[in-house]
Amino acid sequence: MSGNRRTPKSTILGRFGILGASIGVTIFYIATAAGLAVTIGPFLIGGLVGIGLLVLFVWGGTNLIALLFMGNDPEYRAWRREGGDPYFDNLPPPFNTDSNTQRDGGLAEPEYEGFVPPDDWVHQCPKCGARWEHAVGVCWNCNYGSDMAQCAGCGEFVKEPNPGDFETCGVICPHCSCVIRLT
Ligand SMILES: [Zn+2]
Ligand SMILES: [Zn+2]
């Protein structure tokens, strides 16, 4: 599916919940088989709470380590802003079944017709999900970004309010107030 978002974290947590519950049930059956008179409730709750605490602990630790090592990396920060998570996006199936581009760019790739981008293209179009060679630019697949220009003042990409504004009246950069005019 083109443009599919990442699996929601709630869905992934739900899958952990199923795992926790089944661990609880398994331990319950082992206990009954061992001849203990027990009820299933505490085992279910124990399994869920146990998995919950483990996930919380590892998630917190992974985020902390990522922050320490990559907290100043603009690419990492941009990835975080659009929903990337160093823990959830590195989980293997069955918890997270997203493709690599989905984990990386947040979108599933479209069905390519004709040109298929090489495997070493790791960037992604924020609109259609097609793989890109460079982090920014005009999308070869859906033309996304053709109304954008890079501000010479601050380097941010700015969208044209009306078609042709860059060439005619120029556009004031919302980040640094420089005027962007293409000739
Ligand atoms: Zn695109
Ligand atoms: Zn600017």
Main sheet overview: 2 strands, antiparallel
Molecules bound to protein: zinc ion
What's the total number of strands?
A: 6
Q: Give the count of helical stretches.
A: 4
Structural class of the secondary structure composition?
Answer: mainly alpha
Cα-to-Cα separation, first versus last residue: 39 Å
Q: What would the principal axes of the Cα set say about the shape?
A: elongated
Q: What are the secondary-structure elements, in order, as H or E?
A: HHHHEEEEEE
State which percent range the strand residues make up.
5-15%
Q: What is the mean predicted local confidence, pLDDT?
A: 89
Order of strands across the main sheet: 1-2
> What percentage of residues falls in helices of 4 or more residues?
25-40%
Radius of gyration: 23 Å
Structural features:
6 strands, 4 helices, 8% strand, binds zinc ion, elongated, 183 residues, mainly alpha, two-stranded antiparallel sheet
